[in-house]
Amino acid sequence: MHEILEILYENAKATPSEIAALLGKSEEEVAREIKEMEDAGIIRKYITLINWEKLDQSVVFAVLELKVALQRKTGYDAVAERIARFSEVESVRLVSGGHDLSVTVRGKSMKDIAYFVAEKIAPLDGVQSTCTHFILKSYKEHGAILTEQPKPERLVITP
Question: What is the pLDDT of residue 70?
């Protein structure tokens, strides 16, 4: 199962046939295992990694650091689950260190994100403070390098 997940993590478009060939299993066995993992919630979603900087339209990402008042019985879960419901939110993580939650958000502009934080996140019950870090450039996402790598050039060989 772990081997299949590693292959899909590297290439979500890998077909059961391709995975079976790599692992020496039957296509039916691989397809069954993938279906079982989807049904069990192990595989939650297949994603496409987009290099937004290559597009003309504006897309801005920011990482929010949130300090949260600990909720009785639910811990941080109630606040985190509420924040996760916003369409602007890409990810919500409980983290250690100087803040409690790390939230990645996406918007059309810095102003849109600032408005979202001020109007929707900061006023939430349990949110004590916010700190917004705008992402200026991404170099690597989900294990993939986003910057252009120079293609190796061969030297001309002369006799």
Answer: 85
Q: Is the pLDDT of residue 153 over 80?
A: no
Is residue 106 classed as helix, strand or coil in its secondary structure? Answer: strand
In this predicted structure, the answer to whether residue 73 has a pLDDT above a threshold of 90 is: no
Cβ atoms of 60 and 113 within 8 Å: the answer is yes
* Per-residue pLDDT tens digits for 19-69: 999 999 999 999 999 999 999 999 998 988 888 877 877 899 999 999 999
Taking the C-alpha atoms of residue 58 and residue 122, their distance in angstroms, rounded to an integer, is 24
Q: Which helix H or strand E contains 60, and what residues bound it? A: strand 60-68
User: Tell me, what amino acid is at 127?
Assistant: V
- For residues 116 and 107, the answer to whether their CB atoms sit within 8 Å is yes
| Per-residue H/E/C for 111-142 | HHHHHHHHHHHCCCCCEEEEEEEEECCCCEEC
Cα–Cα distance for residue pair 123/112, rounded to 1 Å: 16
Task: Assess contact for 40 and 32: CB atoms under 8 A.
Answer: no
Task: Write 89-97 long-range contacts (CB < 8 A, 24+).
Answer: 90/61
Residue 14: closest CA among 4, 26, 28, 2: 4
